[in-house]
Amino acid sequence: MLTHRIDIKRELRLEMGAKNIQYMFERCSHGGAKPLYLFFDEVDRLIDVDAARNWQFFRLLAWAKDAEMIRFVVAGYRSISRLVYGQNEHRSESREGGGVQRTSDTPLLLALEPITLNPLSRKEADVLLIEPLKSTEVQINNEQEVLNRVWKATTGYPFLVQFFGQRLFKAAVEREPQSIGVDDVVAVEESAELREFLETHFIENTLQNGIPVVQERVCAFLFAHSNASSWIEQDFWEACRSHHVPLGTDPLGTIHRAVKSLADAQVLHYSHGRYSFAFPVMRPILTSSYPDVNKAILALTGN
Asked: How far apart are alpha carbons 121 and 22 in whole angstroms?
């Protein structure tokens, strides 16, 4: 694929292997004077496969990067931290403090700059919602109150702001004149569509290779059924331990990876060592969908 996109004539010489691709990088970047810019999307599966093959592909990219022949961005979800930090990233975090330990089994250890897609600012969220509606001449009644209500429900997460925008537009075009108001926002908040949308978001983002990630789901269930507005990792660990959730030989590391993945998936929000739900409606959705936390854990763990 690299040769096809960069220099298609070299595609016929792939039997020469990595040396041929190294030469292609050197030639096409003019020896590093004009580096190639590459973007790789959805790389999780590639990372897992390449790690099992002693990082053949990413070693090649690391070599080209060090030689200043390429600059690249990789995008993904679960396995990105493995590429950046190594297989066994572990954070020990408690009320007394903690730190991060990492093992080096990646050719790009600390060579990439991690970028997390954070929620939008209030201004950005308002623009994302209002501009498309106004461009289609939808009248917005009590505009500021509408914006306040959507902001409170979405806390600036783009995919959720977009969901509200789409449903509000649908409501507007079904009436004449085309308009929306606060009642329409409330209707979206209370809709079965939103519940299904967020529950699907939770389920799909707690799967790995099509299999539920037990610790991630259990952490979310236990936190949802607590009365706390936020937890640190120690709280998740203590709750899992009290419910006899299997955490393997590295329980703190397992908890760290679980809640970090929930934060990456925009189920939880992380700030200053504490985790809370990314948006307010997630807690009631989980507690109503899984009203008996012990049965939910039993179904996942068998314990």
From this structure: 43
